[in-house]
Amino acid sequence: MSAASVLAEEFEVLESIYPTELSVISDREIEIDVEPDYPVEGMESFKLKLSVKYLDDYPDELPILALEAVEGEIDESEKEALLQGMATIGEENIGMAMTFTLVSYLREQLSAVAEGKISLRIAEEREKERLALEAEEARTRGTPITVESFKEWKMKFDQDVAMKKAKDEEEKLRAMTPREREEYRKIGTRLTGRQLFERNRNLAHEDDSLMEEGTVSVDISQYDRTKVEEEEEDHIHFSDDE
């Protein structure tokens, strides 16, 4: 049987197997839409177009194969791996009609490719969720406090308080009359009791120096009230009218 007859017979078989997927381009070229061998959960649509060009010595030499994405996406590395796999299968079937075998292999491999894509998508989504969770935990956890960070915070806090106090003071003075401002400033220069105490911690004992030398303190508990009352009675005189 001639190579042309073998090829014509193979086309007839392929048309019966792939009535809607097969397109005959010429007597030596066909295209077949190929989908995964079984549905893959999460993959809405995935379909490739396999182009097959048969050489004069087919089936004793491999046909020229090409792949193109019809639905879904496939990168160049995945495409090259599929073509290399079909070439290996073709080498094993040299001398025989091999198109059906090549398409069956491609359908099986497309299922594996689709599962790989879904697994990669799930892994990427989980990684995004993990990173988002870590970012949220870091945001709510806050920054650990160290001696250095506390000093920096305290310095900034004191500066903010001083600036606010100065601003409030300026606004208060602006609302006063010149005389009120003068009186306010005088009051502000007076030392408080605490300030006086801090300047002279012996202030509480300064009154002791006012006592004259030789002064004797009196203990009231030793004072005899009965004697005083008797002395007062001796000085009382009654008139004849009484």
Annotated CATH architecture of one domain: Roll
Find the structural class using helix and strand composition: alpha+beta
Q: DSSP helix count?
A: 7
Q: Per DSSP, what share of the residues sits in E-state strands of 2 or more residues?
A: 5-15%
Distance between the termini: 176 Å
The third-level CATH topology of one domain is Ubiquitin Conjugating Enzyme
What's the shape? rod-shaped
Strand order in the largest sheet: 1-2-3-4
| Number of DSSP strand runs | 4
CATH superfamily assignment of one domain?
Ubiquitin Conjugating Enzyme
Average pLDDT value?
Answer: 80
Order of helices and strands: HEEEEHHHHHH
Organism: Pisolithus microcarpus 441
Pfam families: DFRP_C (PF16543), RWD (PF05773)
Protein name: RWD domain-containing protein
Your description of this structure?
The protein is rod-shaped. The protein is an alpha+beta fold. The chain has a four-stranded antiparallel sheet with strand order 1-2-3-4, with helices on one face. Strand 1 (22-26) and strand 2 (29-34) form a beta hairpin. The chain contains seven helices and four strands, in the order H-E-E-E-E-H-H-H-H-H-H. Among the domains are: 3-121, Ubiquitin Conjugating Enzyme (Roll), CATH 3.10.110.10; 147-193. Helix 2 (76-92) runs antiparallel to helix 3 (99-141). The protein has helices at residues 3-17, 76-92, 99-141, 147-174, 178-189, 193-199, 225-234; strands at residues 22-26, 29-34, 47-53, 64-71.
